[in-house]
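Pasting as-is:
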Amino acid sequence: MTTSSERRYLSNSKNWINHVESFGDSNNFDNYKDYFKFAMLWMSFNSYYSSRYKHISGERNQIIEFARDNEEIYNSLLENEISDIVEKFRDTKDLEGNYPREKVLDMRYDSNGEETFNSNKKSLKDFLFVIYQIRCNFFHGNKGETIGNIHDRNLIIWAYKYLDIFWNKFIEQKLA
């Protein structure tokens, strides 16, 4: 017997399949490219930290250690390249269009968690946890149901932009 929770996840899975199958319809891929850019960037980041910190159990714990090791890079970016990071996060609004945004809710059907990102809570760990929550919502939550929501899309665009800036700076410094 399929539970109601399973039904919701299966329905979400079916929504994603329908989205992917619609790519053949004219230029429909353009409606999804921001989501896929974010997914590919996250995979690049994830492949590094999960390998570098494989001795640490759990993704959140790996992210904490990565953040401890790399706070200096992030802080240097905060001074210049990403000084507007919190302001732009607040501008993304939530799914209902509420402003200003200060957190990302855990969109799993059985959760009531959230990650806060604001002027008081904007360390690299805080930033990566909010990015991680966006990623979890995208990979495991109900983003398949909300893909047409402009506020959701703006959050994905924000996540991609700032993770891209940080990740490229990190790579540049490590390869120098």
